[in-house]
Amino acid sequence: MNWEQVWLHYRSLKNHSNSKYFQTIALTHTGKSKTFDKALLKNIQNELMVSAQKFFSLEPRMVDDKAQATLSLTLDAHANLPFEGYTIQEKDDQICLISSSAQGLLYGAFDLIRRVMCEEDLTSLTVTEAPDKHFRMLNHWDNPDGSVERGYSGNSIFFQDGHLIMNERTKDYCRLLASVGINATVINNVNVKDEAIAFVSEPYLVKIKEIADLFASYGIQLFLSLDFAAPMDLGGLKTADPCDDAVIAWWKERMQIVYSFIPHLGGFLVKADSEGRPGPFTYQRNQADGANVLAQAIKPFGGVIIWRCFVYNSQQDWRDTTIDRARSAYDYFYNLDGKFCDNVILQIKNGPIDFQIREPFMPLFGKLKKTRYLLEVQIAQEYTGQQIDICYLIPWFQEILHMRTYCATENDTIASLISLAPQSGGGEGIVAVSNIGDDPNWTGHDLAAANLYGFGRLSWKSDISNNQILTEWCTMTFSSEKKVLDTIKRILMMSHPALEKYSAPLGVGFMVTPHYHYAPNIDGYEYDKWGTYHRADHMGIGNDRTDTGTGYASLYYEPLARIYNGRDTCPDNLLLFFHHVPYTHVLQNGKTVIQHIYDTHFEGYEDVLFMRSLLDSLDGFIEDLPLSRMKERMKKQIYNAREWRDQINSYFHKLSWIDDEHQRKIY
Ligand code: GCV
Fold it and tell me: Which of 138, 139, 141 to mutate to test the pocket of ligand 1 (most atoms within 8 A of CB)?
């Protein structure tokens, strides 16, 4: 095996008092039997067996009949448990696991394993858990040739040279996902090209079905990315116009074929009319026309169409300050609320631009009342250090989830809008762009695995504490030793603020090397067509998105519209996203913009040096291999942070002619 087990690395706990609970484990569920139940149960039992063997050198007796399982629990009490929910109880030295579905048992089994690994005393344990979101999904941007768009941890684990791969690692992928509650995945890139265009045709569907079946045996529903122009690219039609009869008929027939192979396929993810992708705009149709033709074709089979709101034409003239890429998703989708078929789910990026280190939330959240949607975040660190620099993203995601939209007087946070609780909008769950590849440690940087783990745990429950996530992940991955936990937690918790300090300031975004998106290039996109500008001159910097500018700030509900429109009320960390201000403008923190830029860039670099010293202090406390990998990357991070510090400080010093109050070295 040339890959590692990361947080499912089961170590020996031989003399631990919990071993007595692993003599017999009773498990049962109250749900109607489903196609993959048998396979699920086999995998659950196997996971418990293997882990018990590794932890305690034991072979537990598995009791899976209802009579035994109810020794300590009454089934009636659990009949109302939500699908995927479960209860674990210890009584009379026996662990009993009950759920309303086989899938719930899977999550319960991994919960039990997690508690054992974290050395929690199982005596008298009673815990009932259920996810708060329906869809908990990963998106892979993997191409058939094995490359991964924005992949920073090797090649694809799903594709190689135009072929699909299914092996032991595919199974371990399922185990990792299931262990944190992820229940859906898209394995191919939203930019559908090459062989992927033909994934909806026979030769590929055979292999895809095998993978889909394996995923289903771990409670994971497979989705595929779809080429909107497939009627032309694959079907040989002259058009892909969603209102054309031949196109409508082509999609119907295609979906019939697809579902005859894979009846349990979740559906398709579509990126249309964006960054060169085909879409309904080519035919003067709107986004609902585009999504609905697919939705109607897939409806008889119970599938859904996940339609991305990342729609913009990427052809902006930098001279034109009236056009604002940040507005595009809102402008294209807000007026279509209620126009989508009921099996269309919109997928909305957390912010209006593109996964920057800091952005306001997308104003569509809370505005769509009659449309289903998902929140999309990115754990692939495209703009946040590319898994070379450490950037633990979970606190940022928690911040996003807890942002109030003000669409109602209560329960109006993004977390509540995308949760299963009754609500005014139509939220359905959360999606992350994956950060894994075929590197032995899956995520390139060993610490980047905390983002995958944390995303899964957060997708299960928005209000899980960050401390719990980190304690679980560090303990399972490295060790429960206090020194290790404290040090790794400290590094991770410093990492997002540090990167925010040393990269583009005050929410202005980008300033990265074009195309690669790593390392500074302040003017890299300034005169380009992608709509991502800082608009700095010798007097000031920032984008005017207020009512005197593009009007974007007023797309939010009050009081946010007023807060963002006001130069003195806008939060400092978003100031340059919303306002163009002089360098001498005084922030709410009491500093001028220019002094803040200097201070944060000096500090950010110092923070990274401190993170290095923390990493060095782990010598002898964790295994050499991961530590040496981390140290290698840390060297690059230090180099990168130094470049950012000096290039930003020097650029703005030259432009503003304002000296640093502390006379530090600016080149
Ligand atoms: C898959 C950004 C990335 C692209 C990505 C796109 C998207 O623009 O740079 O690589 O394409 O987002 O989310 O579709």
Answer: 141
